[in-house]
């Protein structure tokens, strides 16, 4: 399925509606402890980076599943939104507009 962050994809289409995928994930206690130590000295916290990467991929897949349930051919104007829940959870949403080619 074509996913684009732009509206113009070079094809004529009809809009089917909004689609989205959401996931919320957290790191385990050991990872949180390691991240706390890393916070003292600075630098990238690779465990959290991986968690966000995994969350984005999961959110995209769920958005695709939503679009497929509407018989969409593509998703345009795709965006991400994310936010923290508490101190150790991260929620990621992928959303866009499902379209059907004419």
From TrEMBL:
InterPro entries: UPF0145_dom_sf (IPR035439), UPF0145_YbjQ-like (IPR002765)
Pfam family, one: YbjQ_1
Origin: domain of life: Bacteria
The family this protein is said to belong to: Belongs to the UPF0145 family.
Annotated protein name in UniProt: UPF0145 protein G6R27_01430
Biological classification of the source: Bacteria, Bacillati, Bacillota, Bacilli, Lactobacillales
């Amino acid at each position: 399925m074509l996913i684009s962050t732009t509206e113009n994809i070079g094809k004529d289409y009809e809009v089917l509606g909004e689609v989205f995928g959401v996931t919320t994930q957290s790191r385990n206690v050991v990872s949180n402890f390691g991240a706390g130590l890393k916070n003292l000295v600075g630098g990238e916290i690779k465990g959290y980076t991986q968690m966000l990467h995994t969350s984005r991929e999961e959110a995209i897949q769920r958005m695709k599943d939503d679009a497929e349930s509407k018989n969409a051919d593509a998703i345009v104007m795709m965006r991400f939104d994310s936010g923290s829940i508490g101190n150790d959870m991260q929620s990621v949403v992928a959303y866009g507009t499902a379209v059907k080619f004419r």
